[in-house]
Amino acid sequence: MSRILVTGGAGYVGSTAVALLVERGYEVVVFDDLSMGHADAVDPRATFVEGSLLDPDALRNALAGCEAVIHFAGKSLVGESVEKPDLYHHVNVDGTQNLLDAMAIHGIDRIVFSSSAATYGQPVDDPITEESLAAPTNPYGASKLAIDKMISASGISAISLRYFNVAGAYESSNGWLAERHNPETHLIPLVLRATEANPLKIFGTDWDTKDGTCIRDYVHVVDLIEAHILALGALKPHVHEIVNLGSGGGYSVREVISVATKVLGRAVPAVESPRRAGDPGTLVASIVKAKSLLGWQPTRDLETMISDTVKSQDR
Ligand SMILES: NC(=O)c1ccc[n+]([C@@H]2O[C@H](COP(=O)([O-])OP(=O)(O)OC[C@H]3O[C@@H](n4cnc5c(N)ncnc54)[C@H](O)[C@@H]3O)[C@@H](O)[C@H]2O)c1
Predict the structure, then answer these.
(1) What is the 3-state secondary structure (H, E, C) of 123-149?
(2) How far apart are CA 4 and CA 30, in angstroms?
(3) CA distance 232 to 129
(4) Is 189 in the pocket of ligand 1 (CB under 6 A)?
(5) Does 10 contact ligand 1 (Cβ within 6 A)?
(6) Which of 139, 135, 136 lies closest to 82 in space, CA to CA?
(7) Dihedral over Cα of 202, 194, 8, 221: its sign
(8) Which one, 1, 9, 148, 303, has the greatest CB density within 10 A?
(9) Domain ranges, ordered by start, for the chain
(10) pLDDT per residue over 127-137, tens digit each?
(11) Bridge partners of 69?
């Protein structure tokens, strides 16, 4: 079975990919600088190389013998990207250029890349398709769009997967793999950790949505990784496809709170706050292309995403 380099394989999404890949018989090399990831999240059946995208020699060495790359590594905090745009460009864009250069040295021409819904910026379509205008509103989204363009220009076989909101957890044979971001900015972990002393802030209750709160599209991390494995098999020579990954529907912040309340069996303390600058009201993916190109269909609903996250925290 193929040997795959997984960059960012110590992070939330990447570590789940590594576990599922080794469980399917792939040989996996993880490349991660542990700036945000956790060494104990790396499946012990994978080879772990601690190294940075900013170190071309380390990348070249790690790629030896690999046939394809799944590229998760990078910086992904929107707020931090606004404060440090040069850092985001350097790590994400220059780092990915280093990766593409190292792949070229080895003649490796197959990559699946973690792009993001942040490439679209303020949505003009609902749902958002891959043809929708890509006009990022922050340096994080701009770095992902720049990488997508760089990959297109490289002429290699590639699929950029534009994730909407990833959630849930996976119980691998070595234990639960879950979000352990610091700082945590994702809604579901924040909902679960809300207390009377530190209630969840609901940013805006006057949006043009069914209950006035923002609507986002959530996809379970296991469904998301299934799409990556399908994408590896769908790569075509010299073709770069962009594919959205979400559920194709959305949940409002109040709906997330309501499902979490049911799963937890207790109330989720929350306070209403003003809108955050730059937040769109609704962000929902069209997943028509993911279905047709990859044969992918997400199967895990919001309740499963929340209950798996809770189980991973009770471990
Ligand atoms: N989680 C989401 O909801 C979401 C949504 C859209 C896109 N994405 C993208 O998916 C990817 C994975 O997201 P995640 O939530 O698992 O993030 P994460 O921060 O948990 O994982 C990223 C990993 O990359 C590593 N890394 C960072 N800089 C590196 C460098 N210079 N060299 C080597 N390794 C480096 C970190 O140590 C970390 O383990 C990211 O590229 C992110 O932008 C995530």
Answers:
(1) CCCCCECCCCCCECCCHHHHHHHHHHH
(2) 9
(3) 21
(4) no
(5) yes
(6) 139
(7) negative
(8) 9
(9) 3-169+218-246+285-299
(10) 999 999 999 99
(11) 5, 111
Neighbours of 40 (CB within 10 A): 11
Region of 178 (left: φ > 0; alpha: ψ -120 to 50; beta: rest) is beta
Mutation probe of ligand 1 site: the residue of 15, 18, 20, 32 with most atoms within 8 A of C-beta: 32
Among residues 122, 109, 121, 128, which one has the least CA distance to residue 145? 121
Q: Are 165 and 218 in contact (CB under 8 A)?
A: yes
Res. 279 pLDDT band, cuts 50 70 90: confident
Task: Judge if pTM exceeds 0.90.
Answer: yes
- Residue pointed to by tokens 């030896």: 64
* Angle between helices 12-23 and 221-234 in degrees, nearest 10: 60
In whole angstroms, what is the distance from residue 192 CA to residue 200 CA? 9
CA 110 remoteness from chain centre: 19
Instruction: Tell me how far apart the alpha carbons of residues 117 and 94 are, in angstroms, rounded to a whole number.
Output: 21
Q: What is the C-alpha separation between 126 and 51, in angstroms, rounded? A: 40
- What are the tens digits of pLDDT across the range 110-168? 999 999 999 999 999 999 999 999 999 999 999 999 999 999 999 999 999 999 999 99
User: CA angle at residue 157 from 155 to 160, to 5 degrees?
Assistant: 100
Q: Please give the Cα distance from 6 to 30 (Å, whole number).
A: 5
CATH number of 3-169+218-246+285-299: 3.40.50.720
Pocket flag, ligand 1, residue 54 (CB < 6 Å): yes
Task: At 144, list the tokens.
Answer: 């992902």
113-124 in b/e form (b: 16+ CB < 10 A) is: bbbbbbbbbebe
Half-sphere exposure of 158 (CA within 13 A, CB side): 24
Q: Which of 5, 12, 218 for mutating ligand 1's site (highest number of atoms within 8 Å of CB)?
A: 12
In the reported structure, the alpha carbon of residue 196 is separated from the centroid of ligand 1 by a whole-number distance in angstroms of 31
Q: Find out whether 68 and 29 touch, Cβ atoms under 8 Å.
A: no
Both structure tokens of 49: 């190389």
DSSP secondary-structure letter at 84? -
